[in-house]
Each structure stands twice: as structure tokens, then as C-alpha cells.
Design a protein that fits this description.
The chain is α+β, with helices and mostly antiparallel strands. It has a single domain (about 10-105), classed as Arc Repressor Mutant, subunit A (Orthogonal Bundle). About 60% of the residues lie in helices and about 15% in strands. The protein is built from four helices and three strands, in the order H-E-H-H-E-E-H. It has a three-stranded antiparallel β-sheet. It is elongated, with a radius of gyration of 17 Å. About 15% of the residues are buried.
């Protein structure tokens, strides 16, 4: 079971992926999940509950705005867009992720260390 810090980490991971999807424009939840799944080489499959929790959390923070419309199939759907505050948050979090990935890669490539 994830502890509080791990849960924050997991939520932050999903939030940055969702914001990245929304950086391409107005999307409904299904298309956000498809973007993440496709972009991850089919590795990440986002559960609806986690996705909508993330979207609502970011909406409360002012990072995402939503409105109702019709999907390409003519069904009523809620669409989400990234706000200016959300674009700033994405920029900051993307920079953090790049540092994190570089650090993990550095450790994974490290050789010859002795205590």
C-alpha cells in the first residue's frame, strides 16, 4: 500500500501526463486516456476513477477548465482544457520530471562504486 509521499508522487505523475495530453487542446476523458496509453507505447492504462480524480483535482487548482459538448460520435461528453495556470504548472512539473529521469538514468548507468 502506498504511503502519503508515494501517493503524492503517483498523483503528480498522473497529473503531469494528463496536463501533457491537454496541452494539445480540448479533449474529453476518453481521449486523454488514449493519448497517455498511446504515448506510453501501450504501457500505461489509466483507470477511469484515477483519471477523473486527477482532472477534478486539477480543476479545483485552476489548472484545468471543463465544459460540456458532443463527442465525434454525437454523445454528450465533458471536455477539458488546460488553463494558463495549468500551462505554467506543466512547464514546472515537466522540468522536475526531466531532472528526475536524468537522476534515475545516472544511477542505472553507474558502475564500479564500492563502499
Amino acid at each position: 500500500m502506498a504511503g502519503p509521499d508515494e501517493l503524492d508522487f503517483l498523483q503528480g505523475t498522473l497529473d503531469v501526463l494528463v496536463m501533457r495530453a491537454l496541452s494539445h487542446g480540448r479533449l474529453h476523458g476518453y481521449d486523454v486516456a488514449r493519448f497517455i496509453r498511446s504515448g506510453s507505447g501501450e504501457t500505461f492504462r489509466i483507470l477511469d476513477g484515477a483519471l477523473y480524480t486527477s482532472l477534478h483535482r486539477m480543476e479545483e487548482r485552476g489548472w484545468v477548465a471543463s465544459n460540456w459538448g458532443n463527442s465525434s460520435k454525437g454523445k454528450r461528453a465533458k471536455f477539458y482544457t488546460l488553463t494558463a495556470a495549468g500551462r505554467r504548472a506543466l512547464k514546472n512539473q515537466a522540468a522536475d520530471w526531466k531532472r528526475y529521469v536524468a537522476a534515475v538514468n545516472g544511477v542505472m548507468r553507474a558502475t564500479g562504486w564500492k563502499a
